[in-house]
Amino acid sequence: MRYWLMKSEPEAYSIDDLSRDKRTLWTGIRNYQARNYMTQDMQVGDPVLFYHSNADPPGVAGAMRVSKGPVADPSQFDSKHAGYEPRAERSAPMWHCVEVEFVAKGKRVVPLDELRGVTALAKMELLRKGSRLSIQPVDPAAYAVIAKLAGFPKAAS
DNA sequence: GCCAACGTTGGC
DNA sequence: GCCAACGTTGGC
User: Fold this and answer.
1) A86 Cβ contacts chain B strand, under 7 Å
2) Is the pTM of this model over 0.85?
3) Is the CB of A53 under 7 A from strand C?
């Protein structure tokens, strides 16, 4: 089992949206490394931190879990969608996504600023200068530290 | 709104 | 295959 962090702008899709929907396809990823994590490395049941980017404050807002393996991202076929991919064919999709399910909303958002102050998290990809990757692996230990700060269970069950 | 960091594209 | 131009991310 691997642990992950996935970013979303709450204005587009927030932890409250996921709490309402219970499950969602994590569509719109158009970065090869992030895609490859979803298609090659994620397993159903993997715990995922839900991170609010471009938010005030940016930070970890909750927990979710991978609930379904990779499928073709439907948004690549939608010419009205920002993620439209004219090179993709139904028979040869370029982009894939996983389905995630809601686990918990944090008792509070743990702000990025606070995470930067936690020594145990110093090596997190998220905290690297210039880090933009919207899907990242997270150390199990780092996941546990953040879960404690946010007030949700450290492992999905 | 600014801009640093970084990924992608496309000419050569 | 190089790399300049361009686009995007995301904190501030």
Assistant:
1) no
2) yes
3) yes
Residue A155 has pLDDT above 70, yes or no: no
- Nearest-angstrom CA–CA distance, A52 and A15: 8
Distance A15 CA to B12 C1' (A): 47
CA(A148)–C1'(C2) in Å? 48
Residue A110 · residue A150 · CB < 8 Å? yes
Amino acid, res. A99: E
Q: What is the mean pLDDT of residues A105-109?
A: 97
Establish how many alpha carbons lie within 13 A of residue A83's alpha carbon, considering only the half-sphere containing its beta carbon.
17
Q: Is A104 helix (H, G, I), strand (E, B) or coil?
A: strand
Please, are residues A26 and A13 in contact by the beta-carbon 8 Å criterion? Answer: no
CA distances (Å), A115 to each of A4, A21, A49, A100, A119, in order?
A: 16, 28, 13, 24, 9
